[in-house]
Write a structure and sequence with these properties.
Bound molecules: zinc ion
Number of strands: 4
Largest sheet: 2 strands, antiparallel
Strand order of the largest sheet: 1-2
CATH architecture: Alpha Horseshoe
Helix content: 40-55%
Strand content: 5-15%
CATH class: Mainly Alpha
Shape: globular
Order of helices and strands: EEEEHHHHHHHH
CATH topology: Serine Threonine Protein Phosphatase 5, Tetratricopeptide repeat
């Protein structure tokens, strides 16, 4: 069951109080996409994952909190250009602005930047903005690569990071880069499920497939099978 929570939040950047909706709880049925996008019902709750102050445009999961650098970031030309970028769907703009705040606070090599750019890509998918989705995926990939260069990991353990990186590049049509990431992941994958995940990515890359697929397995190492551009409910 999905439960929203309505709040009056005071913006930590400009002090304006605005009505915002947060996600109190949710659940999902079935398998996530290969890039980690959850299935329904969680899938449809994205508008509640990020808030935007209607006065200054500060975007964050919770605008009542802000890092020390947020004010300067929000007032910057780059941030305001991102906030008003007509090429991006509105929800994607909020996630990309939250990514700029996270980058100013923690640097590009940050899991928060990866997450925000990935969410922006999903928002673009829903809005059927293909070129914008590619741009968001490549920004997520750049942040993930930077994170790895620093020795960090997005997903604990790290092998799944290569599946994510492969999927980001594959969905963006960068098949050579996708193949490199999946091959590195395959070498590092020990157990059955990560190995099958990489093999599935490599098959999709060989087929020049840029569509969404899910990792439909029951958690006991059953054969992975690609979904057809959508998630499937558990029977
Ligand atoms: Zn504000």
């Amino acid at each position: 069951m999905t439960e929203p929570l309505d709040c009056d939040d005071r913006c930590a950047v400009c002090g304006t109080v605005s009505h915002q909706t947060h996600l109190l709880s949710t659940t999902y049925f079935g398998a996530s996409d290969l890039d980690g996008r959850p299935p329904q019902m969680t899938r449809s709750t994205m508008p509640w994952w990020v808030s935007r102050c209607p006065e200054c445009g500060y975007c964050a999961p919770d605008i009542s909190k802000a890092p020390a650098t947020a004010g300067e970031t929000v007032r910057s030309e780059a941030y305001q250009a991102q906030l008003n970028d007509p090429r991006m769907p509105d929800l994607a703009r909020s996630f990309l602005c939250a990514a700029l705040v996270a980058e100013a606070d923690k640097g590009l090599a940050s899991g928060g930047v990866v997450r925000c750019c990935l969410c922006a890509a999903w928002a673009c998918d829903d809005a059927k903005s293909a070129d914008a989705a590619i741009e968001c995926r490549l920004r997520a990939a750049a942040a993930l690569e930077a994170l790895h260069k620093r020795g960090g990991r997005y997903v604990r353990g790290g092998v799944e990071d290569f599946a994510l990186l492969a999927d980001l590049y594959r969905r963006a049509g960068r098949f050579d880069d996708a193949g490199v990431a999946a091959s590195v992941g395959l070498r590092k994958a020990g157990s059955t499920v990560p190995r099958r995940l990489m093999e599935l990515e490599l098959r999709l890359i060989a087929a020049a497939d840029t569509t969404a697929h899910n990792c439909d397995y029951n958690g006991r190492g059953r054969e992975l099978s690609p979904g057809v551009g959508r998630t499937r409910r558990r029977r």
